[in-house]
Amino acid sequence: MRLRAGGRPLPALRDDRGAGTALVLAIASAALALALLVVGAGTASIAQARAAAAADAAALTAADALSGYAVGEPCALAGAVAAASGARLTSCALDGLDARITTAVPVGPLTASATAVAGPPR
User: Fold this and answer.
1) Which residue has the higher pLDDT, 32 or 7?
2) What is the rounded distance in angstroms from the CA atom of residue 36 to the CA atom of residue 38?
3) Record's InterPro entries (predicted)?
4) What is the mean pLDDT of residues 70-77?
C-alpha cells in the first residue's frame, strides 16, 4: 500500500472506468468548437457577398442618375438601393460621372463592408 506524506493511504485506482466518457466529451467539445468556427466563417462570407452586391447595385444606380438615365439625387438613390439590398450606405463619393459607393452589412458585433465604383467606360 502506498502512503501519502501524512501517512494516509492513497486511494487505489482499480480500473479505468469513465475514461471513455471523458474522451467522448473532449471529442464532442472539439467538434462543436469546429462547427461554430465554420458557421461563423460562412456567415461572415455571406455578409461580405451581400455588402458587395449592394455596393455594386448602388454604384450603378448612382452612375445612372449622374448620367441622366435615372431621375433623382445620386446618393439618395444609392442609399435606397442599398437599403433594399439589406445594407447600409456608408459612403457616397461623386466625381464627374463616376460614383464610388461603400456599403456595410452587420455580422453579429462586426460589420462587413464593400466598395464599388461605376461610371462610363474609359
Assistant:
1) 32
2) 5
3) Rv3654c-like (IPR021202)
4) 96
